[in-house]
Amino acid sequence: MNYPVTELSSWHALANHAPILKKSVLRDLFFDYPERGHWFAAHGAGLYLDYSKNAVNEETIRLLIQLAEERFLPQRRAAMFSGEIVNLSEERAALHTALRAPRDAMILAEGRNVVPGIHAMLDRMREFSEQVRNGTWTGASGKPIRHIVHIGIGGSYLGPEMAYQALRSFRQKGLDVRFVANVDGAAFIEATETIDPAETLFIVCSETFTTPETMANARAARQWIVTALGEQAVSRHFVAMSTNADAIREFGIASEQTFGFWNWVGGRYSMESAIGLSTMIAIGPAHFEQLLQGFRAMDEHFLHAPMEENLPILMGLLSIWNNNFLGADTLAILPYAHELRRLPAYLQQLHMESNGKCVGEHGESLTHQTCPIVWGEPGTDAQHSFYQLLHQGTRQIACDLIGFCEPLSGLAEHHDQLMANLFAQAEALAFGKSAEDLRTEGVSEKTIPHQVCPGNRSSNVILAEALTPYTLGSLVALYEHSVFVQGAIWGVDSFDQWGVQLGKALAQRILPALSANKMNFNLHDSSTQGLLNRYLRHKMSTVESGEER
Ligand SMILES: O=P(O)(O)OC[C@H]1O[C@H](O)[C@H](O)[C@@H](O)[C@@H]1O
């Protein structure tokens, strides 16, 4: 397993095969094989994946599957699902799939079945959610809760916010959820300035319960409640999610209002754990169960579908192909659904924290490219900003276009227009527009070079019937497993994130100097010191002149 992927025979074969596909034109591939759109497609767990507009042929898929086998993907997949230690650097299992396992499943972590604990937690979440939703959980002054403020960052925030937006039409009316992640005080102020503390419940989410941003916002929230309602109100207005029960107790939140989870669930894989309490309160336990079923259905598909029909395996392998062999080192996530506008941000963390690594899981330096840069915006908005570069820029950019057959709004005509754009964009990316086409249309010779769209831009289209809790669960699990597949091929530890520690540590070193207005202590390089001095000079001058806002 510790063998560099670049030395495998399938990797060499793919490298030799790539120039043929680089030279091929998608137009010709479709011309030579008119049924291509039908055959280069797969479906499972409510999702349809059309990958025919990637620069691949049957030989490419065969070699990619060979690569997965040579990389022991089926064995690695089994190891993850069965609770083996797959996060080697932290010596942990990665058992997010257990979070959605059925009640009667048995999954062992360190010799103990984790499923009963997960369902006990889900039962408590259900009970609490119902109380908040039906008004029997009241604030300290007896008023029902109308506002939830979810405090957390990274994996303790991006999933819940994405799901809250995505499942807008399933939310309970009269109960809103706001999110505070950034340590910029503006985020807290914006979330709380128009709401009544007596009707507000804070959900503090942090796996470690030590993350400085989350702790600063939680302290601000505590102060906000205490100022308005008194110290005794804290217990009615706070709940917390963490693996660190001691830290929660120290913060002053009682164990009855604490929902734990486990260190074998990584933050970016935790939106269906207790971290999803705000989602459950917003959409209700029944819809949350459908979300879990969607996750579960994709887990089953990933486990059992043959590789050539397996959506996460195909997507993961295509990403490797586009990135490592065709040079498309960024991936644009383009949801054609207003409700999925936070999906690109969610998928950025999922991909880039998981696979943005330059060492392999055994500490060896890697010589091949790993995670693509993930970015994106919803269509059609993005068509009017960066699609110019997708169509005519100098780079190859892999695109995932995601759409739904049914509208969520009552505006059916809008939906046809939205989906027409999705289908058209995938077509335009693949086939472009040639000089001959333009000439036939009578375009002047002078502007032809500017109007030519070269085409041959790879894209996947993911289509589902409707954006429901089930579909969302399935979609998220599809990407989780695709990321796992890519990490397994590259040989990285997809479940640690050591790279985020350094900046955090340096910030903690700088903070005391800023708080104490201390200048010129030359602990830093000239650039950092210059910036600190400039910041402090301005801070001190505004304090002295009383100009502070
Ligand atoms: O949930 P927490 O412990 O507060 O961590 C929040 C986030 O911060 C860390 O720095 C990591 O980058 C993320 O993986 C994590 O999700």
UniProtKB/TrEMBL annotation:
The keyword Nucleotide-binding does not apply. Keywords: Cytoplasm, Gluconeogenesis, Glycolysis, Isomerase. Its EC number is 5.3.1.9. InterPro entries: G6P_Isomerase, G6P_Isomerase_C, Phosphoglucose_isomerase_CS, SIS_dom_sf, SIS_PGI_1, SIS_PGI_2. Gene3D superfamilies: 1.10.1390.10, Glucose-6-phosphate isomerase like protein, domain 1. PROSITE patterns: P_GLUCOSE_ISOMERASE_1, P_GLUCOSE_ISOMERASE_2, P_GLUCOSE_ISOMERASE_3. Its main location: cytoplasm. GO terms for cellular component: cytosol. The active site is at E353 (proton donor), H384, K504. Pathway: Carbohydrate degradation; glycolysis; D-glyceraldehyde 3-phosphate and glycerone phosphate from D-glucose: step 2/4; Carbohydrate biosynthesis; gluconeogenesis. It is found in: Cytoplasm. It catalyses: alpha-D-glucose 6-phosphate = beta-D-fructose 6-phosphate. GO terms for biological process: gluconeogenesis; glucose 6-phosphate metabolic process; glycolytic process. SUPFAM superfamilies: SIS domain (SSF53697). GO terms for molecular function: carbohydrate derivative binding; glucose-6-phosphate isomerase activity; monosaccharide binding. Catalyzes the reversible isomerization of glucose-6-phosphate to fructose-6-phosphate. NCBIfam families: PRK00179.1. Belongs to the GPI family. This is Glucose-6-phosphate isomerase. It comes from Acidithiobacillus ferridurans. The lineage of its organism: Bacteria, Pseudomonadati, Pseudomonadota, Acidithiobacillia, Acidithiobacillales. The gene is pgi.
